[in-house]
Design goal:
Length: 423
C-alpha cells in the first residue's frame, strides 16, 4: 500500500512538473509569436505609410511638380534648379514649385504635428544637406546598393521613446533625371530612400496585454488540469488503498486458519520449503515440531464441537506464547499443530517442545462452564546436513516428526520425542 501511495504521489508530482514545464514552454512560444505578430503589424503599417508617400511623390512627378503659395512656413526650395521655380502674380501672391523631394519633407513636418509619424527622404549623395542620412539610414542605403535588398527595419529606443524604423529605396525614374542626371544617376539606379519612423509603444503595450492575458489563461488552464489530475489521483489512491485492504484480507484468509488465527496447512508447507532453502544457504540447522492434544476426541464427544473449537483456539494461543518471534506456528489439521524453528538445534527444539508440553499440562482450557484439563504429545525432527533436495527434505521432516509424535503417544502420551530427520 505504501508503494502504491508513493507511486500515486510521484505521479501527481511528476504531472505537476510536466504541466508547469509545458505551460511555461507554451507561454514562451505564445509570447514569441505575439511579439513577432505585432512587429510584422508595425512593419506593415510603416510600409503602408511609405507607399502612401510614394504615391504622392509619383503624383507630383507625373505633373512635373506642383505650385503652392509662398508663406512664412513654405519658403521656395533653394536647392531646386528650375527657371520656373517661382511665379510672381502680385505683391501679395507668389507661387513656388514643389518637387517630390521637397513635398516629402513638408509632409513629414506636418505628420509630426498630427500623427507622431516621421518621414525622412535621404541619399548617400544628397543635394539638400537636410537629407543627409543618419548612421542607420546610411547602412541601409549601402545595403540597398550592394545587395538590392527591398527594405530594412529596426526597433530603436530614443529619448525614452521607442520607434520602429522602416526604410525602402527610391529608384531613379525618368521624371527624376531632370534634377538628378547631373549627379551621374542613370535610370533604375538607387538614388536614395525614405525612412519611416512610427511610435512602437502602442505595439509594446498590446504585446504586454496579450502576453499577460495568455499567462493568466495558461495558469487557469494548468490549475484546472492539475485539479482534475489531482482529484483523479486521489480517487485512484483511495481505490488502490481499498483494493490493498481487500487483497490483504484475501491473503490473510488464504494463509491463516480461520478458527485459530495461525498459519494454515498450505502456508506451513510453503514456509517450510522456504526455510529449508534459506537454512541450506546459510548452513544453519532447522527443526520442526508437530503436536496434538491427548484425548481431544473425548472433548468433542462430551462438550460438543463449539467447546472443542474454543479449546483449539486456546491451544494455538498457548503455543504462540511459548515460542520465539521468528518461529512459525500453524494448524496442520484437526487438533494437530506444528512449529517451524529456524536456526535451531535438536536440543533447543526439544527444549521448546518440552516448554509447550509443560504449559499445556499445567493449565486448564476454559470450556462452557468448567476448566478442561488436557495434555499434549509432541514429536520433534531436525535437519542439519541438507543432503536431500528441498521437497524431499520437507517430506522427511514431516514424516520423522510425525513418527516421533506417535512414538510419544505409544509411550504414554504427555511427552516429547525427538529424531534426526536425516538419520
Amino acid at each position: 500500500m505504501l508503494t502504491s501511495k508513493f507511486s500515486v504521489k510521484r505521479f501527481i508530482a511528476l504531472t505537476l512538473i510536466l504541466i508547469i514545464t509545458v505551460g511555461i514552454l507554451s507561454w514562451k512560444i505564445n509570447q514569441t509569436r505575439t511579439k513577432q505578430m505585432y512587429r510584422e503589424l508595425a512593419v506593415q503599417m510603416a510600409k503602408s505609410y511609405f507607399q502612401m508617400i510614394l504615391v504622392q511623390r509619383n503624383w507630383n512627378a507625373d505633373h512635373g511638380g506642383v505650385y503652392i503659395p509662398v508663406t512664412e512656413q513654405t519658403k521656395p526650395n533653394k536647392y531646386l534648379d528650375d527657371p520656373l521655380r517661382n511665379l510672381k502674380f502680385s505683391e501679395s501672391l507668389t507661387l513656388t514649385k514643389i518637387n517630390p523631394a521637397y513635398m516629402t519633407r513638408l509632409l513629414s513636418e506636418k505628420a509630426k504635428e498630427y500623427m507622431s509619424v516621421q518621414f525622412h527622404i535621404t541619399s548617400l549623395n544628397p543635394i539638400n544637406p537636410g537629407n543627409t542620412p543618419d548612421d542607420w539610414e546610411q547602412i541601409s542605403l549601402k545595403l540597398f546598393e550592394d545587395t538590392r535588398q527591398s527594405s530594412t527595419w529596426e526597433v530603436k529606443s530614443y529619448k525614452k521613446s521607442t520607434y520602429l524604423r522602416y526604410m525602402e529605396p527610391l529608384l531613379m525614374e525618368k521624371e527624376c533625371l531632370k534634377c538628378h542626371a547631373k549627379q551621374g544617376y542613370k535610370l533604375g539606379d538607387i538614388r536614395g530612400g525614405i525612412s519611416v519612423n512610427i511610435p512602437y509603444a502602442p505595439f509594446q503595450e498590446a504585446i504586454r496585454k496579450d502576453t499577460t492575458d495568455a499567462a493568466i489563461q495558461h495558469i487557469l488552464f494548468a490549475a484546472i488540469l492539475f485539479s482534475v489530475i489531482y482529484i483523479f489521483g486521489r480517487k485512484t489512491l483511495a481505490g488502490e488503498q481499498e483494493l490493498s485492504k481487500y487483497s490483504s484480507r484475501l491473503k490473510t484468509l488464504a494463509e491463516t486458519d480461520a478458527l485459530t488465527g495461525v498459519f494454515n496447512r498450505r502456508q506451513i508447507l510453503q514456509s517450510l520449503m522456504d526455510l529449508i532453502h534459506r537454512s541450506r544457504a546459510g548452513g544453519q540447522p532447522l527443526s520442526f515440531i508437530i503436536m496434538d492434544l491427548d484425548g481431544f476426541k473425548e472433548v468433542n464427544d462430551t462438550f460438543g464441537h463449539i467447546v472443542g473449537d474454543k479449546v483449539l483456539a486456546q491451544f494455538a494461543n498457548l503455543i504462540c506464547q511459548n515460542v520465539r518471534s521468528i518461529d512459525i506456528v500453524g494448524r496442520y489439521g484437526g487438533d494437530e499443530f506444528v512449529v517451524i524453528l529456524p536456526e535451531t538445534t535438536a536440543k533447543d527444539a526439544k527444549f521448546t517442545a518440552e516448554r509447550i508440553r509443560s504449559a499445556v499440562a499445567n493449565r486448564g482450557f476454559k470450556g462452557a462452564d468448567t476448566d478442561i484439563h488436557l495434555t499434549a504429545s509432541l514429536g520433534v525432527a531436525t535437519a542439519t546436513h541438507f543432503q536431500m533436495g528441498d521437497k524431499k527434505l520437507r517430506d522427511e521432516l514431516l514424516n520423522k516428526a510425525d513418527t516421533s509424535l506417535y512414538t510419544a503417544k505409544r509411550k504414554g502420551k504427555n511427552m516429547v520425542e525427538s529424531i534426526n530427520a536425516e538419520g
